[in-house]
Amino acid sequence: MSIEEEILKSSRVVAIVGLSSKPDRPSYRVGNYLKGKGFKVIPVNPAEKEVVGETSYPDLRSIPERVDVVDIFRRSEDVSPIVEDAIKIGAKAVWMQEGVVNEGAAARAKEAGLKVVMDHCMRKEYMKMVGEKEEE
Description:
Radius of gyration: 14 Å
CATH class: Alpha Beta
Strand content: 15-25%
Low-confidence stretches: none
Largest sheet: 5 strands, parallel
Oligomer: single chain
Strand order of the largest sheet: 2-1-5-6-7
CATH topology: Rossmann fold
Distance between the termini: 27 Å
Number of helices: 5
Shape: globular
Structural class: alpha/beta
């Protein structure tokens, strides 16, 4: 089983950092899709009050419940503090979306015992896992 499958099968609560309320944004498509598949999606974006019908939090430390995986939609150079927060809140995994690569942050997360995925789309990996075709 791939690390992506392992994370997807063992996670129920996904905090999405950078989740936008704009339906044309990749973060919205991923968050809305995962919510539709039964994941509890927690938006993390200080500029939003609510996304996909869920309360948005300014940062990971503000989330009042346990988070399984932190899905990151931010520039690669902005990932390190997010990974530090993911470690602090006891997340089990960090998932950097397509185009997001930060080797230092990944090493730090692994060192702290978290599973790490970089440069992969959570939605696409879930679709692959369940045998859904990409609609375009």
